[in-house]
Amino acid sequence: MQIANPVLPGFNADPSMIRVGDTYYIANSTFEWFPGVRLHESKDMVHWNLLPSPLSRTSQLDMRGNPSSGGIWAPDLSYADGKFWLIYTDVKVVNGAFKDCTNYLVTAESIHGPWSEPIRVNGVGFDASLFHDDDGRKYLVQQTWDFREYHHGFDGITLTEFDVKTMKLKPETERTIWRGTDVKLTEGPHLYKINGYYYLFAAEGGTVYTHQEVVARSKSLDALSFEGMPSNPFITNFDTPRSYLQKQGHGALVDTPSGEWYYASLCGRPWHHDNESFTDPRGWCTLGRETSIQKVEWTEDGWPYIVGGHGGQRYVDAPKDAIETEAPADHSQHDDFMSDTLDLNWNTLRVPFDGEMGKVGGGVLELRGQGSLCNLFDLSLVARRWQAFNFDTTVKVEFDPKNYRQMAGLTNYYDDLCWSWVFVTWDERRQCRVIEVAQNDFNNYTSFLRDTAPAVPDDVKSVWLRTKVRKQWYSYEYSFDGTSWVDLGVKLDAKILSDDYILRRYGGFFTGAFVGLAAVDLSGYDRVAKFSEFDYRELPDNE
Predict the structure, then answer these.
(1) 56 exposed, middle or buried (CB, 10 Å; 0-12, 13-18, 19+)?
(2) Which of 3, 41, 324, 530 is the most exposed place for a label (fewest CB within 10 A)?
(3) Structure pTM?
(4) What gap in Å lies between CA 522 and CA 221, rounded to an integer?
(5) Residue 361 CB neighbours (<10 A)
(6) Cα angle at 464 between 462 and 470, to 5 degrees?
(7) DSSP assignment letter at 319
């Protein structure tokens, strides 16, 4: 049995992997998407099942108004004292000198919850993790953010003791334990105690193609006592541009019951247009940063290394003691909206799905028109990750707009800056409903069909909308009967929905493309759209 990387495809970044008994768990970043922190479990590291997210209430996480790629950065999951501990960061500023991040702690006796109300921990830096020492003491380990323009923004790794009696940090114990290598941008720290050494794993180089993970160790937790591994980096794809996996770095170490070791890392899978160099640009990662798992072994002098080389492997031998389980062959999803709660694959932006946004059940998802897809506060959008390079998504929509400010349809969305959609709206010149396709490219908004937008006949109650995504390009179609489809003649470049495209002009490029359903009413009359028969169907990747 082999692990096929990435094990968690499509926007599952910054993995924090642990083992409790014979079960492995991974927690991933969710940034501005709600609910907060994505959880998976597995018995074999091969098949992973999605679990309910731990941050499902606004009392735990209020991101209304957060910038795109703000919110939840690099959560840390751990298990000690008979319960799960989750440290997470809510980042309120993305661009510029400041990050305005706050770290919180929640706990639960079961991975399924209920999870506690949050304890505010500190704001020293992001990517915080909780280390449980074998003497019972606990420490917060974190990247340290320095906003001063005459210092490097990444100011080493800070360690602060956490008092379990008061459930607060002891600020007087704060100290820098390691400043990182000359690659800099040191972040994502995790501490482990193995054979008498404290091992510090940390990411460097930024979460792009220069990304890497490095290792340092010390016999103590004293200030600046850690020494770097002579063979650093531990994992990177900076010098392996033709590897299937790229950007590997930030992640976590785990052992198996029989004593094997594995490392879960974020990764990316770039693609290129036929007329582009393979190395410049390095590629476009429309699926965002995903999760890979690599096998780890140890040298005689006690340093870890990636089996097969620091570039990692696409296929990795599963643990010898793995309990093989079953999981779906892909992440295809059909939703008939019969339940009165949303499926775990659905996400909303910044706030939970509630009565302000709409309701679900009885075969229909109703969305109440609110702000545009650029809105950071009031937006009726329900979406799921792209988890394959090639897929079709269809949905049936019933919508009766009365003016052009009322729109409802199917969107491919990266963030408030870059998205497109096919939607039903009103044409005041022709006095009828029409189907339009529009794109927002860094706030350059384009309506593609205009006067040629197909009219919706008066006797047609519902319109079927479809998007076809084919790695480099995607398109939109419509149907009045769900059987006969008409291509709208708009071919869009998928790179606009990639991390790498966003990076060119915005500092928050940490999520990935989504496909979703949206209703907009800029006139403020709360026009409702009814969606049904949603289908996301993955297709083979012709790589």
Answers:
(1) middle
(2) 324
(3) 0.97
(4) 56
(5) 12
(6) 165
(7) P
Contact 15, 248 (CB under 8 A): no
The pair of three-digit structure tokens given for residue 298, joined into one six-digit string? 């140890």
Give the separation between CA 370 and CA 354, rounded to whole angstroms.
Answer: 13
Q: Which residues of 179-207 are buried (b: 16+ CB within 10 A; e: fewer)?
A: bbbebebbbbbbbbeeeeebbbbbbbbbb
pLDDT tens digits, one per residue of 60-103:
999 999 999 999 999 999 999 999 999 999 999 999 999 999 99
| Spatial separation of the C-alpha atoms in residues 77 and 80, rounded to whole Å | 10
Token pair 């010390």: residue:
218
- The per-residue pLDDT for range 292-327, each reduced to its tens digit, is 999 999 999 999 999 999 999 999 999 999 888 877
Distance CA 171, CA 245 (A): 40
Give the three-state DSSP class for 415. Answer: coil
Distances in whole angstroms, Cα of residue 129 to Cα of each of 34, 87, 152, 290, 396: 21, 6, 22, 20, 44
Amino acid 543: pLDDT: 56
The token pair at 60 is 């735990």
CA distance 302 to 258: 18
Strand segments, DSSP code E, in 308-361 are: 315-317, 333-335, 348-349, 358-361
Give the span between the Cα atoms of 504 and 441, in whole angstroms. Answer: 12
Nearest CA among 204, 192, 198, 232 for reference residue 217: 198
172 three-state secondary structure: helix
Which residues is 315 bridged to in the sheet? 4
Q: DSSP secondary structure string, 433-477?
A: EEEEEEEEETTEEEESSGGGPPEEPTT---EEEEEEEETTEEEEE
311: exposed, middle or buried (Cβ count in 10 Å: 0-12, 13-18, 19+): buried
Cβ atoms within 10 A of the Cβ of 510, count?
28
Q: For residues 399 and 409, what is the distance between their CA atoms, to the nearest angstrom?
A: 9
Burial class of residue 165, CB neighbours in 10 A (0-12, 13-18, 19+): exposed
Residue 255 pairs in a beta bridge with 261
SS3 496: helix
Considering only CA atoms, which of 486, 485, 467, 483 is closest in space to residue 475? 467
Residue type, 371: G
Give CA–CA dist 268/482, Å, rounded: 35
CA distance 179 to 187: 10
Q: Compute the half-sphere exposure of residue 538: CA atoms within 13 Å on the CB side of its CA.
A: 17
CB 236 within 8 A of CB 249: yes
Give the 3-state secondary structure of 42-87: ECCCCCCEEECCCECCCCCCCCCCCCCCCEEEEEEEEEECCEEEEE
Q: How far apart are CA 429 and CA 86, in angstroms?
A: 55
When the pLDDT of each residue in the chain is averaged and rounded to a whole number, the result is: 97
Beta bridge partners of 378: none
